[in-house]
Amino acid sequence: NKYVAEPYKVKVVEPIAVTTWEQRKKAIEEAGYNTFLLRSKDVYIDLLTDSGTTAMSDDQWAGMNLGDEAYAGSENFYNLLKAVKEVYGYEYVIPTHQGRGAENLLSQLTIKPGDYIPGNMYFTTTRAHQELNGGTFRDVIIDEAHDSDSEYLFKGNICLDKLKSLIEEVGAEKIPYICMAVTVNLAGGQPVSMQNLKDVYALAGKHHIKVMFDATRCVENAYFIKKREAGYENKSIADILKEMMSYSDGCTMSGKKDCLVNIGGFLAVNDEELYTRATQMVVMYEGMPSYGGLAGRDMEAMARGIYEAIDYHYIHHRISQVQFLGDKLIEAGVPVVRPIGGHAVFLDARKFLPHLEQEKFPAQSLAAEIYLKSGVRTMERGIVSAGRDKEGNHHKPALELVRLTIPRRVYSYAHLEVVADAIIDLYQEREKIKGLEFVYESPVLRFFTARFKHV
Ligand SMILES: CC1=C(O)/C(=C\N=C(/Cc2ccccc2)C(=O)O)C(COP(=O)(O)O)=CN1
Questions:
Q1: What pLDDT was estimated at residue 1?
Q2: Is 124 a catalytic residue?
Q3: Residue 444: predicted pLDDT
Q4: Which of 116, 177, 447, 452 is labelled catalytic?
């Protein structure tokens, strides 16, 4: 049938919390209507994030018992280095505790005040580190990415004209690197085509500008190229991934996604001079260049996860689950970002709640209502996540979304049916949903800790 069965069987189970409406009402009020502040024990189906929520395999758990916890030169580091070289093709690897660790290193090493970093739509932590180092992020993604109705198959693509005009505007020497995310999280987990990767790399090369991938969900990107781009239907995920990464000079990686681990990441580069400078800096923030803030066992689990992630049966099922949830909501007329992305289904909260203007935080309110209705936790990816600009005004993203993020190898199709049914029911009574206003707002990355009340 259309949705492939799990290519694994369960060996260990973790009971999940079946809650009552009363319990959930109390929990969401104590959490200030912010799903980030809910306690895991009060969450039935947790679709907050696919980051670090993966179920590891028995082989990875076996690897956890083979942690070489030597302070320097751990054997697990060499296994990780081998996996990154073989699967991604990069020359040098610095393990970090997670993606942000790599973003911190890359941004500090390459960005000077007054620099510009073009990229395909922003991501919260990536932009925060770029700005922390005096850089300005410039969105050069194609227009279709900001249009939830567009069904363009590669909405993650960079617009070459936007990139060219930025280079002309500020000059290549003001652009330390192009930040190419594969896939693009906040556009709805949307992929970049191989052709676009090639074209951007060629253009960057002409101006001697580096291309650095945010490789966090690169295996999902490879899958979409196989399914959607002419000439790749008969290529393996491994071959597509290797070709993808060849159009970059390095990457930051949050291993907590497509490396199938609960903690871990890395900075990978081909340039020896940049690697040398990174080794000088990593000792300040993460520890020796051979462990980067990770235990040996965590590096071993990541090395093994890198190989597991490129197995076709794994990634085919992973995407099939996301597609299943997306299709159910589309069939019921619930507004979602299309095409359905790689790691999540994104509800279009503007269309879901047309009676709430963006300053009433529709996506934040919808995420809270979904939890109250069903115990399903989701994440706001709209005006609250976008934060404020230097003048203190809200960034106002075109996409006001609630993300239903599917963890890897964790839930069954039955769980996703529960999620779909709850959201479809809520959609029938959507006009009852009220707006929110801040009770507490932190000045940085406010969505993590903000608290709200109904207006
Ligand atoms: C494309 C991309 C990511 O999606 C990413 C993390 N995503 C996360 C985790 C997260 C981060 C910040 C706010 C809310 C949730 C996600 O829930 O989507 C990171 C940072 O990686 P890190 O979390 O390992 O530091 C870099 N690039």
A1: 64
A2: yes
A3: 87
A4: 447
Q: Give the pLDDT score at 149.
A: 84
Question: What mean pLDDT do residues 116-133 have?
Answer: 95
Average pLDDT over residues 381-407: 94
Q: What is the pLDDT of residues 400-438, one digit of tens each?
A: 999 999 999 999 999 999 999 999 999 999 999 999 999
On whether ipTM exceeds 0.95, the answer is: yes
CA–centroid distance, 296 to ligand 1, in Å, is 23
Q: What is the mean pLDDT of residues 268-292?
A: 95
Substitution candidate for ligand 1 out of 96, 107, 125 with most atoms within 8 A of CB? 125
Q: Per DSSP, what are the bridge partners of residue 184?
A: 190
pLDDT at 386 over 70: yes
3-state secondary structure the chain: CCCCCCCCCCCCCCCCCCCCHHHHHHHHHHCCCCHHHCCHHHCCEECCCCCCCCCCCHHHHHHHCCCCCCCCCCHHHHHHHHHHHHHCCCCEEEEECCHHHHHHHHHHHHCCCCCEEEECCCCHHHHHHHHHCCCEEEECECHHHHCCCCCCCCCCCECHHHHHHHHHHHCHHHCCEEEEECCEHHHCCECCCHHHHHHHHHHHHHCCCEEEEECCCHHHHHHHHHHHCCCCCCCCHHHHHHHHHCCCCEEEEECCCCCCCCCCEEEEECCHHHHHHHHHHHHHHCCCCCCCCCCHHHHHHHHHHHHHHCCHHHHHHHHHHHHHHHHHHHHCCCCECCCCCCCEEEEEHHHHCCCCCHHHCHHHHHHHHHHHHHCEECEEECHHHHCECCCCCECCCCCCEEEEECCCCCCCHHHHHHHHHHHHHHHHCHHHCCCEEEEECCCCCHHHCCEEEEC
pTM above 0.90, yes or no: yes
Catalytic residue selected from 68, 100, 124, 239: 124
State pLDDT tens for residues 61-84. Answer: 999 999 999 999 999 999 999 999
Is 36 annotated as catalytic? no
Q: What is the distance in A from the centroid of ligand 1 to the CA of 100?
A: 8
* Residue 214 Cβ contacting ligand 1 at under 6 Å: yes
> Across the strands, what pairs with 45?
376
Is residue 24 lining ligand 1, measured as CB closer than 6 Å? no
49 lines ligand 1 (CB under 6 A): yes
pLDDT of residue 37: 98
Cα of 428 from ligand 1 centre, angstroms: 32
Catalytic annotation on 123?
Answer: yes
Nearest CA to ligand 1 atom 13: 124
